[in-house]
């Protein structure tokens, strides 16, 4: 069953045009001119129940506008939109009972009262029974370690503490779909990791469907198996994260640190006629570039045993680099031409290192 079903969804805004100069300002007082701007342009996608999907794009690509339509905040200009079996902007009262929403830069908690009081108010908004509320609250508070924060005013919480409370507020009524718009923005790595682990557990144990928009692609890598990529209001990629990496990754590099000095000719002989490229970092360290269609294990099997090795490191193109190149090209359909990597790059001391992340 589909949690979210979108067909040809479009949202246009009427934007006022301001004329220049004093004369133009006077004209604007009596007769304003407007232009139509399309923020989301006829997009279609389906998300099955229980999936964690990443929804990514540059600033102004249309991510937040889509989320606001999916949650019933905005009414679409045209297109079909069904979430949890409801049309969000039509069946508002019933619809909100089944969704949770966290906007990273906006709070649903009351600023000057204690956190527990905000939760009590939200219980009444969502019409959750006292027994169900207590059971759910105790579980969430223990999981996110909020015991010491419940009686503090929201204004006295750190950003990380507030975001954990925002997650509890969004989940008090046990929604089946959770919309997250930049939930880890501005957080330190420890809090980000805690929130990611919580979301993975929530999805695995309760089957909660999660749609996540973020500029932090580490969130996507940690949580999502599927990515929808938006550019200028249109979907340019909808598929698996691993497929995206496979299509656009420029290959991998393996760094070998030998116990004794080696030469470029010697290490090249280890792999024979394999389509790889070697370079020397120093007299005991060499790197080999391996194209994406070749198995790393095949190369390792050729090298290991030829000479004593003290350390091996594998480098792979990271997601940030891949997404940046897709936006620069304007399309995710065609991968880059790997032949453009010149032999000169292979002879440099640190070949193809930009955008590589050690793992």
From TrEMBL:
<dbReference type="InterPro" id="IPR027417">
    <property type="entry name" value="P-loop_NTPase"/>
</dbReference>
<dbReference type="GO" id="GO:0016887">
    <property type="term" value="F:ATP hydrolysis activity"/>
</dbReference>
<feature type="compositionally biased region" description="Basic and acidic residues">
    <location>
        <begin position="346"/>
        <end position="359"/>
    </location>
</feature>
<dbReference type="InterPro" id="IPR003593">
    <property type="entry name" value="AAA+_ATPase"/>
</dbReference>
<dbReference type="Pfam" id="PF00005">
    <property type="entry name" value="ABC_tran"/>
</dbReference>
<keyword id="KW-0813">Transport</keyword>
<protein>
    <submittedName>
        <fullName>ATP-binding cassette domain-containing protein</fullName>
    </submittedName>
</protein>
<keyword id="KW-0547">Nucleotide-binding</keyword>
<feature type="domain" description="ABC transporter">
    <location>
        <begin position="24"/>
        <end position="257"/>
    </location>
</feature>
<keyword id="KW-0067">ATP-binding</keyword>
<dbReference type="GO" id="GO:0005524">
    <property type="term" value="F:ATP binding"/>
</dbReference>
<feature type="region of interest" description="Disordered">
    <location>
        <begin position="331"/>
        <end position="359"/>
    </location>
</feature>
<dbReference type="InterPro" id="IPR050763">
    <property type="entry name" value="ABC_transporter_ATP-binding"/>
</dbReference>
<dbReference type="InterPro" id="IPR003439">
    <property type="entry name" value="ABC_transporter-like_ATP-bd"/>
</dbReference>
């Amino acid at each position: 069953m589909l949690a979210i079903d979108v067909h040809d969804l479009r949202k246009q805004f009427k934007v006022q045009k301001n004329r220049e100069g004093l004369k133009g300002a006077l004209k604007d007082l009596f007769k304003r001119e407007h232009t139509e701007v399309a923020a989301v342009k006829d997009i279609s996608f389906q998300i099955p129940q229980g999936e964690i999907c990443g929804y990514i794009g540059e600033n102004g690509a249309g991510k937040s506008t889509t989320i606001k339509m999916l949650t019933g905040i905005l009414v679409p200009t045209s297109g079909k939109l069904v979430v949890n079996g409801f049309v969000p902007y039509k069946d508002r009262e019933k619809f909100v009972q089944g969704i949770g929403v966290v906007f990273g830069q906006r709070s649903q908690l009351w600023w000057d009262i204690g956190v527990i009081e905000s939760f009590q108010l939200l219980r009444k908004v969502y019409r959750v029974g006292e027994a169900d509320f207590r059971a759910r609250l105790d579980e969430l508070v223990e999981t996110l370690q909020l015991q010491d924060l419940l009686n503090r005013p929201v204004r006295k919480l750190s950003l990380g503490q507030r975001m954990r409370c925002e997650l509890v507020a969004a989940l008090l009524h046990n929604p089946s779909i959770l919309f997250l718009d930049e939930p880890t923005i501005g957080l330190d790595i420890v809090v980000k990791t805690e929130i990611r682990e919580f979301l993975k557990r929530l999805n695995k144990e309760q089957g909660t469907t999660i749609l996540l928009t973020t500029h932090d692609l580490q969130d996507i890598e940690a949580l999502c198996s599927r990515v929808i990529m938006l550019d200028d209001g249109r979907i340019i990629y909808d598929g698996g994260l691993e497929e995206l990496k496979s299509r656009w990754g420029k290959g991998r590099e393996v760094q070998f640190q030998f116990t004794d000095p080696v030469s470029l000719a010697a290490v090249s002989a280890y792999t024979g006629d394999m389509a790889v490229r070697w370079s020397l970092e120093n007299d005991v360290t060499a790197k080999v570039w391996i194209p994406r269609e070749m198995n790393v294990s095949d190369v390792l099997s050729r090298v290991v045993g030829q000479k004593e090795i003290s350390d091996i490191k594998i480098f792979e193109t990271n997601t940030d680099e891949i997404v940046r190149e897709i936006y620069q090209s304007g399309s995710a359909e065609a991968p880059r031409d790997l032949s453009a990597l010149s032999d000169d790059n292979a002879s440099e001391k640190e070949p193809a290192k930009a955008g590589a992340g050690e793992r």
